[in-house]
Amino acid sequence: MMPPAKRPRLDPDDEVSEAEQLNRRVLRKLENAMLNDPTVDLTTLIPKTYSERLALRKETHPSLTHETPGDKDQAPTSAGDVAEEQGPKLDSLPSPPPELHIPFEFSAALKILLGLETLEHGEVHRELQRVLKEGEVIWRSQFNENFVVIRCNDDIAVKVIRQTTDLTEFTALHYFEKHAPDLPCPKGLGVISDSRFTYIFMTYMPGVTLDTIWKQLDHTQKALIRSDLERFFDRLRALPVDNMPLGGFGGEPCKDTRRHSRMCPHPVHTVPEFVDFIFSNPHYGGRVYLDILRGIWPTDSKVCMTHGDLKPCNILVQLTDDGNYRLSGIIDWERSGVYPEWYECNKATDMLTPTEAEDDWAAYLPPCMSPETYPLVFVLDRLWDSHVV
Predict the structure, then answer these.
(1) Dist. CA 24–CA 18, nearest whole Å
(2) Shortest CA distance to 159 belongs to which of 204, 116, 206?
(3) CATH: 3.90.1200.10, 3.30.2130.10, 3.30.70.270, 3.40.1010.10. Which one for 208-385?
(4) DSSP string spanning 216-240?
(5) What gap in Å lies between CA 130 and CA 210, rounded to an integer?
(6) pLDDT by residue (tens digit) across 191-214?
(7) Can you state the percent helix, strand and coil of the chain, rounding each to 5?
(8) In sequence order, what are the residues at sequence separation of 6 or more whose Cβ sits closer than 8 angstroms to the Cβ of residue 271?
(9) SS3 for 198?
(10) Local structure of residue 254 (DSSP, 8 states)
């Protein structure tokens, strides 16, 4: 039997689409895993957001900025001062159409930033252009360069995302400002949408993201951050949820993100209904096996306020006078809402794989979201996730 012919080496400088670049990276990852272990389960290595990322890269949007070569690959990962690094100024911006949607009253701070006394769309459009051009890009999506976070001034940042009517993040921030103003998270200031983008204005949170300094920390420092997270989430989970449906704080549908993000098409009021939604994901595998998983999944859980995507890149920390990093804020609340008490654990650990040899982040999760607290659901969710299409 003749050995397979070698593939021609792919030149990284070739002119290829962003979607093809993503597929090449995923293939290289799978090939490397096969070299290390020919029997590896490849489905565990495909990024959970692969389908969403591929779809974004297939889209064609005009660029928000002029960038020098290499800028796209140096995107930081948060709205904070990521490793003390700031991106380039916006010096060119396509003129968005004047048909704007403003779903919430602007805060006083946002009106001052935009220099507006009224919400006349022509004026909002013009001042939005000015603010975006004058701001500093402090985060850029590695999957779509049009999605950025811009620091407008010392106190205000704006998150630019694909046009959406799902404003879970903003309604969460508004809820916290009203019911838990002591929580260290941004305050929502206003939202503007046009036909292409949604602009979510919020207070700027100083700090560096935990992922940028985690490997530098010793056990004592990591334990301090775990204690800070425990206090934060004990406070969050103690907020009343009486008579609130499951899902976003503003009545947004339940979400579940695995290979891609799904929204439940109908209201969910109980934990059993939410588990049914989880198991409605397109999947493969034997019916009897999956019915057993569904049958032993706990459904008598309490529900509580949940972040839904707690990762080091969404945790801001600052260096204190005693030389330790301490929690300064939690950002990125777009997957937040009222969910079963075990759901935070599942989503905080969903990127953990058997091949993670160095990253011990999951070992320092606070008790309220630790796999040791919810061992059954943690294992069941991993088994179920391996069957999701």
Answers:
(1) 10
(2) 204
(3) 3.90.1200.10
(4) G--HHHHHHHHHHHHHHHHHHHTS-
(5) 32
(6) 999 989 999 999 999 999 999 999
(7) 35, 15, 50
(8) 246, 299, 300, 301, 303, 340
(9) strand
(10) P
Q: Would you call 225 exposed, middle or buried from its count of C-beta atoms within 10 A (0-12, 13-18, 19+)?
A: buried
- Give dist(CA 368, CA 370) in Å, integer: 6
- The letter for the amino acid at 319 is L
Return contacts of 106-111, CB within 8 angstroms, 24+ apart: 106/189, 106/190, 107/187, 107/188, 107/189, 107/190, 107/201, 109/155, 109/156, 109/189, 109/203, 110/156, 110/189, 110/190, 110/201
For residue 76, pLDDT over 80 is answered with: no
252 vs 171: CA distance, rounded Å = 9
Give the 3-state secondary structure of residue 176: helix
Do the beta carbons of residue 210 and residue 225 sit within 8 Å?
yes
Q: Packing angle between helix 375-385 and helix 287-296, nearest 10 degrees?
A: 160
Give the number of other Cβ atoms within 10 Å of residue 365's Cβ. 21
Q: Which residue carries 């008579």 as its tokens?
A: 243
**Residue whose structure tokens are 């006394």:** 117
- What does the block give as tokens for 274? 């939410």
- The H or E element containing residue 332 is none
Identify the pLDDT of residue 303.
98
Residue boundaries of the structural domains of the chain: 71-203, 208-385
Query: Read out DSSP for 279-311?
Result: TTS-B-S-HHHHHHHHHHS-----EEEE-S---
Q: Name the token pair of 303.
A: 């529900």
Assign residue 357 a region: left if phi > 0, alpha if psi is -120 to 50, beta otherwise?
alpha
Min mean pLDDT across 144-153, 166-175, 278-287 is at: 278-287
For residue range 317-340, what is the model confidence (pLDDT) as tens digits?
A: 999 999 999 999 999 999 999 999
Place of tokens 């890009």: 137
Name the residue among 253, 148, 245 with its Cα closest to residue 199: 148
Q: For 340, how many CA atoms within 13 A lie in the half-sphere containing its CB?
A: 24
